[in-house]
From TrEMBL:
Species whose genome carries this gene: Salimicrobium jeotgali
UniProt protein name: ATP phosphoribosyltransferase
Cell compartment(s), UniProt: Cytoplasm
GO cellular component terms, semicolon-separated: cytoplasm
HAMAP family: HisG_Short
Assembly, per entry: Heteromultimer composed of HisG and HisZ subunits.
Protein family: Belongs to the ATP phosphoribosyltransferase family. Short subfamily.
Catalytic activity: 1-(5-phospho-beta-D-ribosyl)-ATP + diphosphate = 5-phospho-alpha-D-ribose 1-diphosphate + ATP
Keywords: Amino-acid biosynthesis, ATP-binding, Cytoplasm, Glycosyltransferase, Histidine biosynthesis, Nucleotide-binding, Transferase
Amino acid sequence: MTKPLTIAMPKGRIFEEAAGLMQQAGYDIGAGAEESRKLILEFPEQNINVMMAKPMDVVTYVEYGAADIGIAGKDVLLEQDRDVYEVLDLKISPCYIAVAGLPDQPLSRIAPKIATKYPKVASDYYREQGEQIEIIPLNGSIELAPLIGLSDRIVDIVSTGRTLKENGLVEYEKITEITSRLIVNPVSYRTKSERIDPLIEKMGEQVGVNS
Ligand code: PRP
């Protein structure tokens, strides 16, 4: 038998939707994954291995060829600028990246502080605006930063808007829309095309793309 196709799946809130979409496309890889602590799940009848990865790390596994394909948020792809092929917009987990902060706070003229877990996205955005800023890198609970005076603004994901609202923050500008994408390792794309091409096609049918 040929080597299994290895798929890096994002653990956490995207997983269920992503695994559901794969199942609809005929790849039944979700069963029991989230309840188990196993990080590599084998599906020998489908000749597939699934790696359960942190969403921010999926792109790394795919870039280095540890996984042939993966499902990653466009936010991670924009932030990390890695050498992977982005082959399909899966249109799941829609959200957007926005600038937010305390209400009625004009942006300070001198190097305003921007807290974010997306330093590249935030820097690119403010460079385009012609603003000199200082990035405060954080890993989560970004909304804390303006509340305690650590930053003037945040650049972060908005999904339902609940986190902003419940913390008394307002959105100032929308930067970009985000959905999850199917990504492929460039070498696997050539060497495993007999497995990967049909997968892209079937997933494409599910999300309404004529490939
Ligand atoms: C994300 C994001 C916001 C929140 C937005 O954080 O960073 O904090 O979700 O969702 P909402 O608009 O539906 O409220 P996440 O829950 O991933 O955790 P984190 O704070 O650890 O990054």
